[in-house]
From TrEMBL:
It comes from Drosophila willistoni. This is Uncharacterized protein. Keywords: Coiled coil. Residues 84-111 form a coiled coil.
Length: 192
């Protein structure tokens, strides 16, 4: 069953808009993590490690200095926690966009009784990108939970840094999908 031109135009506009929203969230999230929040998180974790080392040195000999350092550790930990929480909130918004795109594709498929392979490709790319980001955020959260101010180890800081870096193949896939979306923003559905 073929769609009439009005329905085809509706799906073309709707899917294009949903894809544009999702790719904008992906681009924004990735750029923010790599240029703003990532370096900030690295600096904060390094600062937390340094403060915890100072705490270890002075806590037994000077209780008030130890308390001040512990308070400073808690402030830095709170800032790290809030940044990671904000990343998770951003991912919730991206997940909504991905889900909406998938639902609209299913609706089109139900009306058309057909499946366009490039829509499947977009669905797969969006879902894979979301899963990569969610996994990274979960690892960051787990590493963060290992940052107890009194006992933070350098290995935890190093692991946190590693968790901030996505593997090259994931980054390449993200950039390739963003480039495709940028080059063909309104050409999701072929004319039949």
């Amino acid at each position: 069953m073929h769609l009439n031109p009005e329905r085809l135009e509706y799906y073309q506009k709707r899917l294009s808009q949903l894809l544009q929203n999702a790719t904008q969230h992906i681009r924004s999230y990735h750029n923010e993590l790599t240029t703003l929040k990532g370096p900030q998180l690295i600096e904060q974790t390094q600062n937390l490690w340094e403060l915890s080392q100072r705490y270890r040195l002075v806590a037994s000999s000077n209780a008030s200095a130890g308390l001040a350092l512990l308070s400073a550790c808690q402030d830095v930990f709170t800032a790290i926690y809030e940044t990671i929480s904000q990343l998770n909130e951003d991912l919730i918004e991206l997940a909504k966009d991905v889900k909406e795109f998938q639902l609209e594709c299913r609706s089109l498929q139900a009306e058309q009784d057909d499946e366009w392979s490039h829509l499947v490709d977009w669905n797969t790319w969006l879902k894979k990108t979301l899963i990569v980001f969610q996994t990274q955020a979960k690892y960051l959260e787990l590493s963060m939970r290992s940052m107890l101010p009194k006992r933070i180890e350098n290995s935890v800081v190093e692991q946190f840094r590693k968790d901030l870096q996505l593997p090259e193949n994931y980054v390449a896939s993200i950039y390739l999908g963003l480039a495709k979306a940028h080059l063909k923003p309104g050409m999701l559905l072929p004319t039949r």
